[in-house]
Give the backbone structure.
Amino acid sequence: MKTKFSALILLLSITSFKTLSAQPLLSGNLLFLKHEKVINIEFVYDSMGVGSKTEAEYILEKVNEQNESLPGKGDKWLVEWNDNKAFNYPNAFIVNFNKKMKKSGIVAEKHSSAAKYTMVVKTHHFESGFSGIGLITMASEVNLEILFYESNIRSQEVAKLSLGSVSGASGAPATAYGVAGTNTAKYFLKNVLDDIK
């Protein structure tokens, strides 16, 4: 698992991506970041669409298709799918976010009990992309929104930020999450922590 993740981080560093044209703040403000050193971060995928399907529809189709080609293959695919959501995608986002935020002194950490605020990265839509024969390729792409709460008070959002669609390498959706992490940090540094050089 560690080797796979290291390879994904390397791919992030050598691949060109489509960057966000804007990251609009939908509600609230992010001035609280000026006073924080650690932000708790969570990733949620409820109601996520995959291609033209719901995630449940996509999983059912993929598992059945894989198991028909080779018994047990679909079950293995499902384990990898869930591992990616739990590990590879969050870590790609966090590593790039923290790298870009280094000068600010702010870090994002999973399961941080000390953090006053929690940043929830919500995936609305997901495309894994593919590399086909010849020049036929499709970039991976994720559509994300970030919600902020006080960690002990989840009934009311402090702020909401739309990342829109973010592209990564073909067939490597973790790279799209990595780009999203970088772009989120850039937005914070430019629009909230602009006094940090």
